[in-house]
Structure to design on (202 residues):
């Protein structure tokens, strides 16, 4: 086990190799370190929140293959992190998981069912596909994603919560699934280039 805040604020720590005996990593274990690349062994079955948050030089990461949940604020503030490969086993992404990171590309697993509030807030994503298992797009999900131009939805989404897309200034239009029932307040506010939302037929 690696306990919570074990290496918190160790800005001179640039690399670490985790043994295959590690099963648990606590909250903020590597928060604001100097690590640029991180590999979590497949033995890890429990990850805490904010484990790599504000690790300013983090460019690449390998997550454990059996991971089911990406915890909240896990990569928050990782400014140079451009892409993350999520294991197919991931069903949930926690709140603020990638908030204010440099994330520019991610493929969401087909089995994903839950996104937390603000999970992609302020990232550099240009496009993304939301799988059909996700029924609710949470509040502030893509807020301030100023590079976001294209969002595609599989059938299954029922709710877009408040402020989900506000300040997505390059988002021009969306084709929404026929399953959508609720579009909450301010969902697309301040989307200056937005010209229309079109509903897919039943």
């Amino acid at each position: 086990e690696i306990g919570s805040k074990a290496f918190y604020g160790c800005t001179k720590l640039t690399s670490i190799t985790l043994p295959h005996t590690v099963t648990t990593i606590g909250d903020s274990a590597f928060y604001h370190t100097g690590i640029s690349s991180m590999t979590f062994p497949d033995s890890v079955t429990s990850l805490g929140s904010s484990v790599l948050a504000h690790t300013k030089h983090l460019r690449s990461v390998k997550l454990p293959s059996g991971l089911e949940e990406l915890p909240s604020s896990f990569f928050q503030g990782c400014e140079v992190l451009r892409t993350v490969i999520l294991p197919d086993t991931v069903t949930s992404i926690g709140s603020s998981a990638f908030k204010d990171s440099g994330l520019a590309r991610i493929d969401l697993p087909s089995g994903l069912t839950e996104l937390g509030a603000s999970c992609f807030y302020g990232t550099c994503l240009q496009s993304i596909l939301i799988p059909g298992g996700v029924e609710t797009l949470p509040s502030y999900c893509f807020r301030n994603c100023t590079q976001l131009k294209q969002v595609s939805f599989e059938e299954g989404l029922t709710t877009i919560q408040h402020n989900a897309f506000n300040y997505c200034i390059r988002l021009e239009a969306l084709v929404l699934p026929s399953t959508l029932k609720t579009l909450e307040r301010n969902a697309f506010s301040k989307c200056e280039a937005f010209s229309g939302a079109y509903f897919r037929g039943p």
Q: What stands out?
A: DSSP finds no helices and 14 strands in the chain.
